[in-house]
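quick one, 249 residues, struct below
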Amino acid sequence: MTFKMINQKTADYFNKWGRGYSDAWEPLARRGLSGFETGLVRRAIERGLKKSGGRLIRTLDIGVGTGRITKVFLDYDVAHFGIDVSSVMVEHCLGKFGGSERVKRLEVYDIVNPLPDDWGKFDVVSAIRVLPYASQWREALKNIYQALNPGGVFVFNFPNKYSSTIVPMIIKSGKDQSYASSYGELKQILAEIGFSQIEITGFARLLDVFYAWCNGKVSAGILLATERFLRMVLGPTLFARLLYCTCRK
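---
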């Protein structure tokens, strides 16, 4: 499959990280954050299933990584596709999930390119922790819109440039999130592309390093309780470090 690899630095970085990416999600506090993210994906899948009227739905995970989100999709009766810019990540997921009848394709691909026509259209698409690494993330959003069936659901996240804990900057090495946006900007961009029923929520106001450190039940519990308190006081998105969007075509 021929395509132009735009985000080569990101691909190189994750190729080096490889299977060790799973280790980043081992601390208990990070598992709490992961549960929030996978919960959003589950709700998106269930929306797609409800709309399908019993028809087998087609799903796509952009940025498969080591399979954290892919596992969620495969809990459902779906025809599943996955892509990643990292060949190491794709190979890892093929080893884990390649034998599943629900997996139709897991391939190296850069979503800043339109998806191949022979892949067809999708009912549910996820891009969790992907678009901040894409230099042409607005173009990627347009490609995702085109890849959805009418009424299809798309869920993704993006750093908040008005967070109290993030100073957005371009990281030349590609190691960290290079791009950030805001509630208003994301909503406007998504609406201009054509998305509807745009819902944006947030998570995590405290520094990410705390999530890496808090691996005990007490420390993780305190961290997550603090996040819940801040959410209750400030609302779902104000100063949130991460914004999560769910929308329909």
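The mean pLDDT is 91.
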